[in-house]
Amino acid sequence: MNAVPRQRPATTGQWAAQRTAQRTGRTFHRWCAKITGVYAGIAVFCVVFCLIYEQFSFGEHSDAMRRMFLVPLIGGVLPFALLATSDLLSGLSRVAFNLWNSGIAVLVSGCLITGIIEISGRVSDYSLYYWIAGGVFLVAAVVAQFFPSLFFHDYPSFSYSFNPLFRKRLTAPMRCGLFLCVSPTVPIHRATGA
Amino acid sequence: MLRFLQKPFAYAAVFSVTLASVNTFVLLKTYVIPTVQGYVTEVSDDSSGSSGHSGYSGTTAVTKGDPVVTDNSYTDENIQITLITVRYADTDVYVADITLSSAEYLKTALASNTFGTNVTQKTSEMAAAHNAILAVNGDYYGASRQGYVIKNGVIYRDTARKDTSYDDLVIYSDGSFGIVNESEVTAQQLLDSGVVNLFAFGPALVQNGQIAVSQNQEVGRAMANNPRTAIGIIDDLHYIIVVSDGRTNQSEGLSLYQLAQVMQQYGCVTAYNLDGGGSSTMVFNGEVVNNPTTNGNRISERTVSDIVYIGY
Predict the structure, then answer these.
(1) Over 70: is that where the pLDDT of A191 sits?
(2) Residues 173-192 of A with CB under 8 A from B
(3) CB-CB: which of B224, B275, B296 is closest to A59?
(4) Domain residue extents for chain A
(5) Which chain B residues in 174-213 lie under 8 Å from chain A, judged by CB atoms?
(6) Is B9 contained in some domain?
(7) Which residues of A touch B8 (CB under 8 A)?
(8) Is B11 on the interface with A (CB under 8 A)?
């Protein structure tokens, strides 16, 4: 079978959209399942790491370190399991994926560093910065996924983010809510000619 | 730039290195990098003790006489110290019974005579530098950026600690002890009321002769027996300083409640828990008398921010 030569994108936005559109359908579901497994492994590692660390901490423990596993569990396993088992999204932007992973990594680091400092009997002065930075990464990931025009002014369409099939199943109130969510991007699309 | 974000391995590599660098910096800043915020200056005898970081000490003519020093005692005109070792709850406990003629012989010292975070020195080194007869670790003020720091009549930090569940121990110029909460009084008010030394660790072990901690109460989130350091007052200018071993095969360590029991048994009216764990160190006549643990079960003296000592 001859592979279809990929057309070189003319703009950054087209290039981003092309990359996003590569993972669709069953391929996308399998990929999300794989990412779910990776995040599950990270969550298990967090639990094991905390248990081992507490074995050598003379009875000290840190709530931040004990809850560290929740970050990859809630921020990784749950959303990607949802994507793997539903048609919520038809594809995932690489930019959004990178930023989301970064947010999770920052939050896990925050839990880890805070836990180490707390267990040593000190007070962490930097925890807040981790939570803020992690939150910024996660928000940026959501924005990059659902409002790519903010990242790519020449992004051809945001329809890659929402699965058209999924949108057809939405009830009227849900469509209204979806419209309210995406409507702020319409002027941007018009202004940028996208 | 945005194209770069879409390259999975390049982005992951740069981000991982950046995050690891930030984490390393935070840990170094917390544990290693010293931040000097002030220096202790000695006070001349004719000084009023009001300039800069000066202490109240050194304003009285001292006559030591001829001290009588043994392995477990020190006696001169102004200071009497008896050191005994008892076995309590499978733990070696070192008890120093101290009687002074004046409160000015109960002093504190900062590591390297410097106020700051991560400025540390071994208890024995600080004791030697100040010619201390008896010295134990203090409250390790440098472990936090919060909590009042008043040493030898000088306010070094007036930021109240956020965790108000623990009280502070204050030592007044007449040598009496008091328990205060930083949420209820400012550092300046304490200084104005005659406080010359303050320890912000805790909790208070004995108040009004009664044990003030519950059987399950622990420092921070510790739920195990540990090496401990505590100071208490029995009567006017009559003090007890206790250090217990722990984390070793010979000594299990004490819980806070057990430590409070020890302090109560010796008749303490007020007793307070100082920094413990690997920090717990007692130095008497230049020798470390307990078995301080550092980094686990290794018998080694840990560096700390400050000491409380008896000396001239």
Answers:
(1) no
(2) none
(3) B224
(4) 21-146
(5) none
(6) no
(7) 94, 98
(8) yes
Cβ neighbors of B230 (< 8 A, separation 6 or more) are: B205, B241, B242, B243, B259, B262, B263, B271, B272, B273, B274
pLDDT recorded at residue B50: 38
Is residue B6 assigned to a domain?
no
Domain count across chain B: 1
Interface check for A193 against chain B (CB to CB < 8 A): the answer is: no
The closest CB to that of B6, out of A19, A59, A63, belongs to A19
Q: Residue B7 domain-assigned?
A: no
**In this predicted model, what pLDDT tens digit does every residue of B64-89 receive, in sequence order?**
668 899 999 999 999 999 999 999 99
The span from the CA of A103 to the CA of A109, in Å, is 10
pLDDT at B44: 44
Range of the domain at B54: 34-311
Selected residues 23-62 of chain A with any CB under 8 Å from a CB in chain B: 56, 58-62
Which tens digits make up the pLDDT trace of A78-124? 999 998 888 787 778 778 888 999 999 999 999 999 999 988 878 77
What ipTM describes this predicted complex? 0.74
- Of A95, A102, A106, nearest to B6 by CB-CB distance is A95
Nearest to A61 among B146, B221, B296 (CB): B221
Q: How is residue B101 written in tokens?
A: 């003629």
Let me know if residue B107 belongs to a domain: yes
Inform me whether the C-beta atom of residue A123 falls under 8 Å from chain B C-beta atoms.
yes
Shortest Cα distance, chain B CAs vs residue A123, angstroms: 6
Q: What is the pTM of this model?
A: 0.74
B14 Cβ under 8 Å from any chain A Cβ: no
Nearest CA in chain B to A62: B221
